[in-house]
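Data follows
____________
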Amino acid sequence: MPLLVALLCSCCLIVVGCSSTRSLSSNAASYVKGALDEAEGLLGTDYCARGTTPDCFDCSGFTTWCFAKAGIQLPRTSSDQYTVGKAIQRTALEPGDLVFFRTTGSGISHVGIAVDRQRFIHASTSSGVMISSFDDSYWRPRYVGARRIGE
């Protein structure tokens, strides 16, 4: 009987754990929800070079703004943001992880915020703040890595 109860509890936990693509691990910092809520509230905001406010954002201005609203200070540029936090494998992405891309040159040139393991939110030069897929034909080959802030 105890084995049956343990098995049923395990199955329930698995089902509950799989019910949301935006679920957070138990060790995720509380800032994540605030940063993601802020980011999603800015969907559709225009892009502009060196933009740091909801009037218009560049990619790192967007991430800096969202994390600041959640109480976390980030460096201003995407390449500097790539130096903070803990390196994370793509297969271990959690909502709120910073994700980095090489769109020009040889260094980091773009940053966004993971929504889940399939999507990220970012300030795109072509469409402003939007959600994109990691598997998009443009983004997939340009992905460089991810960093977890606050651990």
